[in-house]
Amino acid sequence: MKIRRVIVRLDPALQSRALLEAAFELAGELQAELLGLFVENQDLLHFAGLPFARELGFESATRRALDVESMERTLRALAKEARQALESAAARTQVHWSFRVVRGAPAAELLAVVEASDFVIANLEEAPQGASPASVRIVRAGDLEALRAALQEADGGVIVLVGADEHAVGESLRRALGQGRHGEQTARRR
Fold this sequence. Notes:
Blueprint: E1 5-9, H1 17-30, E2 33-41, H2 42-48, E3 54-56, E4 63-65, H3 68-90, E5 97-104, H4 106-113, E6 118-122, E7 136-140, H5 144-152, E8 157-161, H6 166-182
Helix pairs in contact: 1-3, 1-6, 5-6
């Protein structure tokens, strides 16, 4: 299978340098483009618009009213941090990369950008609900056999569910690709 693009969903709650480094390593190994995807969660914006919406300050323990403008500013700041993390990880590679910000439900927006020749790394515990393309396989990062099988398929994209353990993803990807490099066929030739 020829992977054209590696997509990493950049989650503000789980920005891991190890995950980005593994994604760039994978993109370089597969000679693919890397796309960093940041989703502005529409549900947070809807919640911020409710008259009873409040937040509790982490350090001050004081309650503050939420509003849509301040939530949008926060999301823009988080997107900027995500882009900077992506740029920092990219600085040590020769991989062509891009960054995209979309607004909507995170899982739905992830499914919307997946194409048949994409490899997606998503910080999700469960498979996205909704109409995923029929040609896309969803596997867990720790399931090395399923990951290898998905990479060996002739066509279709792959979504890898990371879950909470982002460090395990890098190791799983390295092991899946490492075996391919030394076997009869490599991921690059598929």
